[in-house]
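Internal QA ticket QA-208
Title: Verify multi-chain structure generation after dependency bump
Assignee: T.L.

Test input:
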Amino acid sequence: MKKKLGLIVNPVAGMGGRVGLKGSDGPEILMKAIELGAKPQSPKRAIQALQRLLDIKDQIDIITYPDDMGENEVRELGMSPVVIGSIVKGMTTPEDTQIAAMQMKEIGVDLILFAGGDGTARNIYNAIGDQVIVLGIPAGVKIHSAVYGQNPKSSGELAALFLQDKVKEVQEAEVMDIDEEAFRAGRVSAKLYGYLKVPYEKRYVQNLKSGGVAGEKATLEQIANYIIDNMDDEHYYIIGPGTTTRPIMEKLGLKNTLLGVDVVYRKKLVANDVNEQSLLKIIEGQKAKIIVTTIGGQGYIFGRGNQQLSPEVLTKVGKENIIIVSTRDKLNTNFGSPLLVDTGDEEINEWLSGYYRVIVGYEDSIMHRVSS
Amino acid sequence: MGIVKIRSDFQQARWNEPIIYEMSTPGVRGIIPPEPETAIKAIAGDVVGKLPEIIRRKTAPYLPEVSQKHVLAHWLRLSQETMGSNIGNDISEGTCTMKYNPRVNEALVAEPNFAELHPFQDEDTVQGILEIYYKFEQFIKEISGLDKVTFQPGGGNHAVYTAASVVRAYWEAKGELDKRTEVITTIFSHPCDAATPATAGFKIITIYPDEKGIPDIEALKAAVSERTAAIFMTNPEDIGIYNPKVDEFVKIVHDVGGLCFYDQANANAFLGVARAKEAGFDMCHFNVHKTFGAPHGCSGPATGAFCCTEELAKYLPVPTVEFDGNKYYLDYNRPESFGKVRDFYGVAGVVLKAYAWTMNLGAEGLRACADISVINNNYMEKKVLAIPGITSAFQGNGITRQEQIRYSFEKLHADTGVGTDDVNARIVDYGIPSYWTSHHPWVIPEPMTLEPCETYSKDDIDEYAAVLAQISKEAYENPEIVKTAPHRSSSHRRNDEASLDDPEKWAVTWRAYVKKHLSKKKEMDSVS
Amino acid sequence: MSKIAGHPYIPNSVPEIKEQMLKEIGIDSVEDIFKEIPDHLRFKGQMNLPEPILSEYALRRHVEGILAKNKNCKDNISFLGGGTWQHYVPSVCDTIASRDEFLTAYVGDAYSDHGKFQALFESASMIGELVDMDVVNTPTYDWANAIAISCRMAARINGRKEILVPKSMSPGRLMVVNNYCKPEIRVIPVDYDVNTGLLNLADLRRKISSNTSAVYFENPSFLGVIETQVEEISKIAKENGALVIVGVDPSSLGVLEAPAKYGADIVCGELQPFGMHMQWGGGLSGFIATRDEKEFVAEYPSLLFGITTTTKEGEYGFGEVFYERTSYASREKGKDFIGTCTALYGIVAGVYLALMGPQGMQELGEGIMQRVQYAISKLSKIKGVKLAFDGYHFKEFVLNFDKTGKTVAEINAGLKALNIFGGKDLSKDFPELGQSALYCITEVHTQEDIDKLVEALETFC
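Actual output:
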């Protein structure tokens, strides 16, 4: 049976970047972008990705939206898509993306490939959550999310491998987007909105192998076991958001907030999804440790998606009580670059910089540089 | 010097050889074991029949029944479907030092005076092999600068495991094993530098490189503490960059009381050039089967020489080989020894071959291996980096590479979709053995690690580079031919990689294959 | 570069070639490469090694001269066993072992080394038949290493941390196992019956508990006794939730039952009898076999070569099974560690088994047992010489010399003078057995060889 590929191109993604805007969400910004002479980026990038699917064009059906939301790009490469839905040409909206994703879910596509940025990822997430496997072609201004391939070609390549069953594993990847509140306050900061399921490209092992029976899940378990085995009775444990810290709560049998911060004391739940203020109250006069992982595709450990862990919280807890956990693969995504902090306070960023032992398994760690 | 030609119409032997079980015919025999004399049979009687039922084999083992000629032919054909380094241009297997393995050494190990020695023979009947062990130990001491050596480990990883065992014994003797729990290593050190201390019970801390590709000394400073048991490190690491601060690494670890082990699997280019001693290491090891000219045997038998300082010598596995001025002997009287890593005394044949190899070259010859290896490598680097799509790890960092280089096809892959696995399959079509990519993790994307050691001629290097250039050209012009390679090797590309990771499908024996695949196929055939 | 210029192993040592290459690199001397090594780390002296022996003939004379100081088991009659055994090595085995393709290959993938993969797959297949298991690994360093890995696999499978082993085990192998199991796993010896040499079941019951991960025993045991209480041992182990690991000398498996048939969960053993020359103990090569269940397969540290399909219809392809388990793939997260072990010996073992076939293995086993029975019946008649354990023997047996008033060392010295290597002296490692020696007889021994031993012992004892 032929595999079904859903393709969504957000034709306006990436338009803001070239003219110095933070994204192209919303009609006003978009109009401004066009006024400033912005040119669409995503169609070109979508085509670069689709070129990698030419080899298997007979093995797949491509289902897409009309005109520049996918149809044009597919036809330009001489392939014939199944076109669904309707749009107002030249006036596409985030709702179009959402409706397209929902329709593709109903059709039962095997994979949705989308070209866009964080806004597009967020729209898709809102529409279908983790019910369809998706993959982003990086084409937006903002690419804080971790749902994209390294570049358009590798997105196409990975999609091809997935559609041929050569890559079978999937992983949850962060959907992040600009934090509007912070943005209005004059600060660029990304918020963690949720997780999409994306094919798991194992860049760091021979890519012929696809199985990964031991893989990601076992590593996460090892990390959780190590953290739990080393929990003491004196400290409050502040568990940051993310799928890497989630197994800690699961193994302890505690309710977990995937997108928020939880607090544990003597292996019992103190509070779920705390904000900065309640966190400060809980640790007042107490010893505490913070367990965090990188959030998003760029290697941030503070200041992206976990703003509750504010400069004040971090100062109270102390640098020596910060425990970073990560899978090796995630750490190696940005090989050669340090992990990043962006707490909004330069002094705190400076203070947080240095070398940390990142826990990558049971009794297994990597010395990694953190910088602002 | 010959003319550079690539083997554009090469064809590896492709016998479509059946599995030996498929060649079986009941009653056919390959060899007849010696029959006991009549008197023996008469006195012994039906010994097997008298065995208790539970322990007596009721049905003969299901083994193939094949005539001697056909057994020989089958394995000769399988050998032809294998590219040994004595046949191939095996610059391919970087980090493995695929040098020429002299035939004369094979003749020596076939001598009954070696091959037919039993390990429990009295010492005075094995003075010859003891002398070889003892003398080769003196050579290794000279080459490393350290004080005592054991050849018991059966390979490089095993020698590194021996190091981990010595570290454990050292801290146990000091009563600090519960405190000294951490071993530090670097990401471009061989995986065994992490895996063997982990097996011995230590926690592992890995150091990443700085922007030049040298292990980050600041990270090491942040990693060491009173919990540090030891550091296990390679130099140069598997990417071919010499760490000039290696003695500072040693000092930082020594300053917190830790031990320092030098993985010298990559020693070939440093014979007579730089030693473990001058850098301050407490321990090191050599892969005797590669650096000293003994063959790899499809992955063993092999020997790791583990070397240490006098202070640590008491923890070495028993027995050691000693000389009392008159006679060589095995010393088991070593109460602080951690025990053994292998039964008896190691793979004596490898030690014998390495002794002969070293005697043939002497100090000057060993140094020539180092010199020619690094010259070969730098010559090759120029040729390879000129090929479109190929870069090297930390290229342009201003550091001259030593004996090997980790290259990357990242650019080729981005440009053409042809990755290192494809190139590695295609290279075989030109008569070159598939190359060593990299140990995991592949932080250098799409890797290829080449080591043109002293064995390889200028023509070999030119041919190798020409083949890579040809494949690069193919990738840009006709990527399909690379992506579907090999075309001229003994077998074609696997079409179901996932089956090798699938418990329902994998089969590591014929009987498992019959159960999982043939029986099912038969069922389906009979239905249709 | 005086002597070494143009050395046969180093083609580019010819000065003109070397110069040309330096020129193409754009440097004057090799020092421009070694400049990356700081001066204080450089070795300044000349290594104190003997002058090279450049001619191949002279080299051969030199090494053979040293080896001539050895006495070998071909020119003498040897009764030594205990972990390395003298068996006949078929010529075809030697031919295959010395093929440069196999001898000098290494870690190439199946596309360049298809034959290597098939050969090791076939070896695993035949060993699997001997022990009645569906999964067999690529070879380990030796039997001791195979036991040690089996113990660690068992501990990972059931999470328990104690292994029971027989006190009659080979001291060398036990030392390896003890070290390899550290620090997590305790290795606890179980007594053997001094009259029968069999495992002491009462002691086994005393020591087994819910902490016991596995019970390991050998068949035949190091002391040469065939363990017959296999059902009881398996039952006791299983009642306590422990796994059963059986170590075998597989040359016995033409006549002795496959261990999986009497309860083994993991089988390990030594391949040296299958076509490897003894080489002073350097011929060792171990194997491990289990059922084809994911929980077992997941715990192997070794490479496993699997059969699969290729793009060419009907063609066999080979590849690595479940590679991510290994330390090659996962560094310290892999199962223990894997490295260069004894693959070539594994290949030779396959050749040996294919030559022997079912009938050969049966005849080998029966012939050995008959010779042993013949020897025992004659030797035990010698005054003062006693067979230490009654019961069944395969190729080894213990003789006790207490009543002769002589030590084994004295007796062996006398035998040596007659070009006979007497049995392995057990008096140090097994003091409870007094002056005893472990004798080994295989298919290489003729009636005349055995009679010579009998005659000699009659004279000394």
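Spot checks passed. The mean pLDDT of chain C is 96.
Status: verified.
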